[in-house]
# Entry
Amino acid sequence: MPADEVLTMGRIGVDLYPQQVGVSLREVRTFAKFLGGSATNVAVAAARYGRRSAVITRTGDDPFGAFLHDALRGFGVDDRFVTPVAGLPTPVTFCEIFPPDDFPLYFYRFPKAPDLEIYPSELDHDAIRDADIFWVTGTGLSQEPSRTATLDALKHRGKSGITVFDLDYRPMFWSSREEARRWYAEALPYATVAVGNLDEADTAVNQRKPAEAAAALHDAGIDLAVVKQGPAGVLASRGGIQVEVPPVPVEVVNGLGAGDAFGGALCHGLLAGWELETTMRFANAAGAIVASRLSCADAMPSESEVRALLGEAQHA
# Structure
């Protein structure tokens, strides 16, 4: 079979999102069920653009795990590297929705998330090496054995093709920022692209100013540094070229998943060989579309939808 264009490795779970907006979970009456998990969402987003995508992760051996396999196949994402872990439940994540900018997350990943039970011996090194883009996340470094598996995958890939490190810092998964920074420093030299917001850049390279963070990421071995600045837009730096792109204004419904939509669109633009600014504008628009919708994976846009929003923004 042909190599994957986008192969991601990391979190998967079930998102249970409230159908009542602007109230706490204490008051919510009904929820909708969706596929979730950042690395998985990126694979779904890439598949929406017609890219051959797959994900390396693990679920519980339970009905929620079966649902995730069904959802992946429905989105056109290859699930051949998604395996069950006996005795651990598939993670469930709840959120509260307080637009435009407050979306508290509640992760139920106890006693341990199956996606942190990825072992180096289970990895298909050929598939990892041959993928056009290989995408790993900071969360994958937070516990063993997935930490060793993530580093093993990066080392075997040897910076072939495009290797993306999604900085993805979630404080609740780590004992401290310093502990995360230690392991991020181990992974950065094996990546060609780093993507993260200002807080995640601080975790990775101890810098909170966008230009300084990008420079520090380059010093760590990164070719393309992408630093998200929230309302200030995105800064991208590569080969001495630096661009800043403003966000696309939309009415925000749920900001969760917008970063994953950005990631999938980034993969699409990199594979297409677009100019840096074109890629950033496309990725920003993709993220904006998902921010204007309730769900994450189910909300990932098609290329025509992204281009339509870009056209509207240009003529606004």
